[in-house]
Structures are given as structure tokens and as C-alpha cells.
Design goal:
The protein is an alpha/beta fold. Helices cover 26% and strands 27% of the residues.
């Protein structure tokens, strides 16, 4: 979907989920709050949760409307979130190497970002990634949907803390997903 289509969905009140992703809540609790990056954050459900838990969050999305909603929610809750509008596909945002204890990338697949996410995580830090899986008649995946096993293959040298492929366990998502939580080697 284009950024304009996402803006239309947000304007219509769609994709405005209140609860953070269960993977983000589960695995962020196991880390001492530090710097976190929420890529393709949408209206910021994960960013807001992390900020409330004491994380210093940078949130990035291509939708100016999503970032506006996130900023309004953060201000209402008196939470500090550094929310930025940047088109990730056009490379308008550079992930700072070694800067984050946690990087979240939920329901957005841009394969070219994965090595940059890996470089952005500090040793011992984690990446939480959730992407939609391609349909069975698309065994090679698509530009926005992963093929089975693809997400894990990107992190083969990392410690896998969680891996799942199948039906989404979040009611707000109906398509099958691949979930991965991976920890960057300490050395």
C-alpha cells in the first residue's frame, strides 16, 4: 500500500490499535529500558507502550497522519517519543549503528532494512520482527510478504529467543505471520 492509502485508512479510523504487540511487551520487559527504535510505527501503539515503560523511543513512519496521531497520543499521556516522518522505502531515515537496545519492526517487510536493523542493535540487544507471510501459491514471497523461513534466515547468526509462523495471534491482523525475536551476539 502507498503512504496515501495508509493515510486514508487512518483518516477512516482503521488500523488504530490501542494495545501494543504482545511480543513487544513480553520481550521489552526482559531488558533494562534504554534506547528503542520502532520502524514503520504507524500511530505508535508499540512506541507509546515502550515510552510508558521508561524507554527512550524513536518512532518512524512514512505517514504524516500516523505520526501526527502518535504525537497527539504521546502529548495527552505526557510521554516523550521522538516521532519522525520518513519514507523508509526511499531511504529517508538512516538507522544509527549500534545505537539501540531494542528495534521493533512489526507488520512491515522491507528486506533492505534488515541488515541496517541488525547494525543498529547494540551487542546483546534484540530485534522484534513480525511480517505477513505470502500465500501458499507464492512460494518465493512477495515484496511485502515473506516466504516461510525467510525471516529466520536473516538472523541465522543471532540467538533466536522466539520464532513462530502461522495464524496471527493478534485479533487486529487476519493474515498468517512470521514472528521472530532475535538477540545480537554479545561479542
Amino acid at each position: 500500500m502507498s503512504i496515501q492509502q495508509w493515510n486514508e485508512r487512518y483518516r477512516a479510523g482503521e488500523q488504530l490499535f490501542g494495545e501494543p504487540s504482545p511480543l513487544v511487551t513480553q520481550y521489552s520487559r526482559e531488558l533494562r529500558p534504554a534506547r528503542a527504535l520502532d520502524l514503520a510505527c504507524g500511530p505508535g501503539r508499540n512506541s507509546l507502550y515502550l515510552a510508558k515503560q521508561g524507554w527512550r523511543v524513536q518512532a518512524v513512519d512514512g505517514s504524516a497522519l500516523a505520526i501526527e496521531i502518535l504525537r497527539e497520543q504521546a502529548a495527552e499521556r505526557k510521554l516523550a517519543v521522538d516521532a519522525r516522518v520518513a519514507d523508509l522505502e526511499r531511504g529517508e531515515y538512516a538507522i544509527e549503528p549500534g545505537a539501540y537496545e531494542l528495534i521493533c519492526n512489526c507488520y512491515y517487510l522491507q528486506r533492505s532494512l534488515i541488515p541496517k536493523m541488525q547494525a543498529g542493535v547494540r551487542p546483546g540487544g534484540i530485534v522484534v520482527a513480525i511480517v505477513h507471510l505470502a500465500d501458499p501459491d507464492q512460494p518465493q514471497g512477495t515484496s511485502t510478504r515473506a516466504r516461510p523461513g525467510e525471516l529466520r534466515a536473516f538472523f541465522e547468526d543471532w540467538k533466536i529467543l522466539h520464532e513462530y509462523e502461522g495464524s496471527s495471534r493478534e485479533a487486529c491482523h487476519q493474515r498468517p505471520v512470521a514472528e521472530l525475536v532475535a538477540q545480537k551476539p554479545a561479542s
